Structures are given as structure tokens and as C-alpha cells.
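Troubleshooting entry. Yesterday's outputs looked truncated, so today I'm pasting the complete records for two proteins to confirm everything comes through intact. If either block looks cut off, that's the bug. Protein one:
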Amino acid sequence: MFDSNNSSNLVGQEIVDTISDRKQFVKKVRINYAKKWHKLLSFLFILPRFKKIYLTDPFPGTVYRLLGALIDLRTTKDPQDTEELGLYKIIQTNIPLLINFIAMGLHNKSSEPPRWLYHALNNQFSAKELESLSFDIYRRLDVETFFGITASLRKVQDLNLSLEPEVRGDS
């Protein structure tokens, strides 16, 4: 049976985890190794077969990289394209960027995300899971608060300029 009260509690808990500083468990994924000796070590349980993915608050360097990835998103179609072709091109262009955005947000380090993470995102996550994950990463960026604070500071600065008395000197 589906319990709507329990579902709303889970959604509320996800939002609290996202806003708070706690790391959030995302999913346990299978690692696919490319090299044969890595596969052998995995078979012998020396290398892990699975990896748990967690989402944490991004470091400032990660925020900078994530915002750089969002700038490259394509949101408009070319004027000569038909509606369907324009939409197809937007989707085709943005899917790798969104996968890269999610991988950088999960990796949360200055280095590039590992290949196994890209492979897991492309092959072990559903579209709904990727959508939810991208919203959680974007929420953790807290871009709206940043721009709100910046706008407020600008208003205070403008107010400060208008409140300063004019100094009149002898002319």
C-alpha cells in the first residue's frame, strides 16, 4: 500500500538533508573495471565490486566548476531548425553536460570524476533518479540565496550612498 503521509515525510527529510550539512546516501552502484587485471582483483575481492555514492555539500571550488558547467547548457534552438529538430538538438547537447554536472557534484573534488562514476550514471540510474539528483545538487549550490544576498548588499550600498550628506566647501 502507498502511504502518502510517509511519502511526504520522505520528501521533507530529503529537503532537510539537502539544506543541512549532512551527507546523503544516493545509491549503491556496481563498478565495471576496464582492465582485465582490475577485473581479476575485483573477482578476488581485493578491489571493491560495488561503491556507495553519497552527496555532500559542495566545496567552493566545486561550486565554481558546477556553475561553469551550467553556463554551457543550451536552451534555445537554431532559427533554421524545425521545432522537433531544435528540441532534439537541445536534448542531445545537454545530456552529456548534465551527466558531467552530476558527476562533478557527486565527486566534489578538484580532480576529474572517475570513469566508473560516469559509467554508473549513464547505465545504472534511471531518468527520474538523474533528475532528482540534479535538483539536489543544484539546491546544494544555493544559487538563489547567493544572488539574493548580492542584490540585498547592492541595495544597502545604494542606500548608504544616498544617506551620506553632501559636503559643501567654500567655493
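Protein two, checking that the full record survives here as well:
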Amino acid sequence: MRVRAPWSWKGDSVTLSDADGSSPFCGGKPVHSARKQVPEGATVEITVCRRNGADGAKKDCGSNYGKA
């Protein structure tokens, strides 16, 4: 199983993922993390889903909005 977490806000987005779904803090692997500058006050939507492999169906998804 793996975890995917797309984040989006007006004008940009990023997707964080952990290919093995079990490493704390993405195991320190650069391919599992990304850094973006989210503008202060921007509304950000975050969706988190579990997947069985890279092309597996999305399972147990949840999403929410927040302010940066």
C-alpha cells in the first residue's frame, strides 16, 4: 500500500507520496517529499488516499480545506 496526498491552492499544487506507505516522515527519501511556498492566507485543499500500487484504485480518501 502507498499513500498519496495532493495539495492544491490557487495557482499551484504539489503531490506528496510514500511508495511503501510505512516509512515515518517519508523515510527521508527526497522522491517522497516536496517543498513549495504556499502564500500566506491562501486556502489549501488536502486530499489523502491509500492506493495498492502506483495504479491501484484510491481507497479510504479524505479531504479538507485550511488556510496557510
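Both blocks look complete. Sanity check on protein two: The mean pLDDT is 81.
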